[in-house]
Each structure stands twice: as structure tokens, then as C-alpha cells.
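Record passed on here:
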Amino acid sequence: MTDSPPLQRTSPIYVGMPSFPVAARVALDNTQQRRNLAHATSTIRAKRAAVVAEVADWEDVRLAGASAKDDALGDLAVYLEELETRLTEQGATVHWARDAAEANRIVVDLVRARGADEVVKVKSMATQEIELNEALEAAGIHAWETDLAELIVQLGHDRPSHILVPAIHRNRSEVREIFRREMGAVGRPAPDDLTDEPARLAEAARLHLREKFLRAKVAVSGANFAVAETGTLVVVESEGNGRMCLTLPETLISVVGIEKVVPRFADLGPLLTLLPRSSTGERMNPYTSMWTGVTPGDGPQDVHVVLVDNGRTHVLADPVGRQALRCIRCSACLNVCPVYERTGGHAYGSVYPGPIGAILNPQLRGVGSEVDASLPYASSLCGACFEACPVRIDIPEVLVDLRTKVVEAKGASAEGVGMGAMGWLFGSAGRLGLAQRAATLAGRLSRGRMPRNLPGPLSGWTNARDLPAPPPETFRDWWMRTHDADGTRRDGSDR
């Protein structure tokens, strides 16, 4: 494990965000949000369970998916270089970004070089992580989210609260009001007679976005997977908006975390089996788009790929925590987590909420902030997340390891000093024997009258428990008094 701090320099912690316990208490008071989350997560869980049950060798597929990701992480530098070579051969330009600030600067410069003042975006956790939209707006460039849920969040001046369904905390009536209030300010307004029927809401979004698709010269995407063997990038989605972004604009900029690489094209088989079933409860994604660099005369002719570290090499150096980099962003762990279902995603203070966020954020950002130090405790350790994870990330194991790091980062404490003293005492039979005899002597002198409350940090213990009186003699003294050297009782009994 390296002692160097994470390299992420543009913090995705929401400004002013309190620690998880504080934020969770506020979220629990939002009864409407709790109803929305309970309905949505229970629906997704049921759909996932049904389609997973159809795969007889589901555990074997999980193992294959985890193995593919581990193969990539085990030789990451080699596969990334192979990916760069294949992309370059196919006419794409590859950029390397050490952190969020560098990635944002690269994208902004590319958009400016095309003379564009707007971009259309495919849903991407990587671009949310680096706060690309904010960087583009600061540069005078409008970024239009085209995923329906992301559009709802953007128009509502909100924050995403789920990996797969960013607007999961909103119901249909709330979405209708957002569309009616906000669409007209940034493009085609919502119809005056808009209802909260899903088909009408989807139609309003489609008409609003159509003009943006048709005029956009630059698109920004992420990638679910990047195949080193062929230089192929893969985006899976349910709506078709992604494919519109990937085909219509002249310039395509893909921002991809370095952990998205997989060694071989054949690795996509198990991964594309696991992802739709674990995320949307579908047998396959309605839209699976693959592209390899530039295809002359078809689609974007100016293709760029920005490979982003942003703390990932720091995570990779941790023998326990590195498994978090297997994550394929399916959100299955969120949908089964009892903590997430009741608090929602905003309480986690990051674009990565839920169990995966509780382990990924502290590793990417370190545990120096109050928010990140609290996240490893945002779990009951029930283990449901591990059972649901399609690539077998042992989230409870990482959470426990991170809790240790949080304690160590705090330095010396009364509890730590006390535990150290106990370790020294129990480390020697002689010291332990002397301490036991001293305790029994104190008990005899006090005639069994023990204080009801201990001072200082020990008060927390006596607030809930009675302090037991020391026995009249230690076990060792009793044994020596009642037994011979061979262990037999001197009184002849067998007990």
C-alpha cells in the first residue's frame, strides 16, 4: 500500500455537504423521497431477481466477469498501452489525464478548438466525477444532458442520487412540474397540456432534445468498457439518446476511467450478460453501441479518447480496496441496500452513492474530510451488496478495512491509548498475573463496593453497564490452590 495521497484534485464532494450521519438524518425526514425510493428500488430488485433466476450458471458468469476485470487490473499499464496503440491505429487521438483538472482542461480545449459553444452528452459517471459540466459552463460552453433522468436532474438544478437512475428520488408529478417550469428557458418548451403520463413526459423530452441533437457539432461520452485488444469503446443504454450523440456530431470526445479497460473482445460476453440483468433487470440492453476510432464517411470523423486516472492508481495500490475498480456501474448494490433505500443518494455527498460510493469515494479522495471519513460507516455490513454485485466486489470487507484506515488517520486517541495499554498488559503472562492480583486486592479492600460511574472516556461504558466487582482470587491462584501439578484435584473430585 502506497502512502501517497490520492491524485484527485478536483473534489466531487458537493459544496457544503455534511457528514453522512448528519445528511442521513435530514434525508430520513423527507417522507416523499423515502416513498419514491422504496417503490423504485423494490421494483428494480424484483425485475433483477426474475432475470437472474433465468441464468442457470449465474455464479459462473459472475466469476468470469470478475476474472476479466482482475486480469485487466493485474496488468493495467500493459493493457492501457495496447488500448492506446489500437485507438491510434484506427484514427482516434488519445489523451492522458492525471486528475480531474487536467481532464477538464483537455476537453474544454478540444471543444474550443472546434469553435463550438455547446455539447451534447451521453450519461457518464466519469464526467460527473470530474465535474465536467461545471468546467464547461465556466468556459462559456453549454453542456446538454440527453439521458432522460440526467435531463430531469439538470433542468431541476438538482444533483443525481443514483448511478443508473439519477432522478430516482423524483416522482412523475415532480418531473412534469420541472419540465413545465424549466424547458422553455433553455430550448423548446414543454406542451401546455403536459400530464404526468410516462409517454407524454418522454415525448416532451424527445422534442426538447431533438433540436439539440441536430445542431450539435461536438458530443461527450463515457464508456462502459474499453477493449485493449481491438481499441473498441462500448456504451450501453436504454433510450437511444447515446447513439444519437455517438453518430450525429462531427467530433466525439470520450472521457474514460482507466479501470474501464478489459483485455479481450471476448471478455465482453460475460460482462454484457451481467450488466443489463444487474442494472435494469433486462436480458440485454436495448442499445449497445461499439465504435473503434474513426470510420471514414460514417459518424464522427474527429474522435478523441481521454483516459483519466484521478486517484485510480492509488486505489489499485491497495491490495484490499483495489477490487472496487472492478465496478461496472450497474447500481445493483444500491438497489438492495437498506441504508440507501432510506437515505437516498444525496446523503453520500458524491456522484457515487450507496455501498459502492461508501468504498470508492474514500479511496479516490482519501479519508481526510469529514464526509469521506464517515462513509465507511454508512453500512450495516449485512452483506446484501456483495451477494448482488455481478463482479463479486466484497464491499463489506473493504468497508471494514477503510474503517481501520479512518481510525489510523485520526492519530492517537484515548481509546487508542487504552487499547495499546491493554495490548501491552496482555502481551505478558507475568504482567497480566500482577494486574489480576492487584485487582483482587482492590476488590477485597473495597468490600465489593464498586463505583457506579467511571470518569472520562470510560463513562460511556458505565453508562450502560455495571462495573463488576473483582473476584476474591484469580483463576490462576484458584487453580494452583486446588490442583496438583498433573492437573488433578486435590480433593479427589473430577470437577
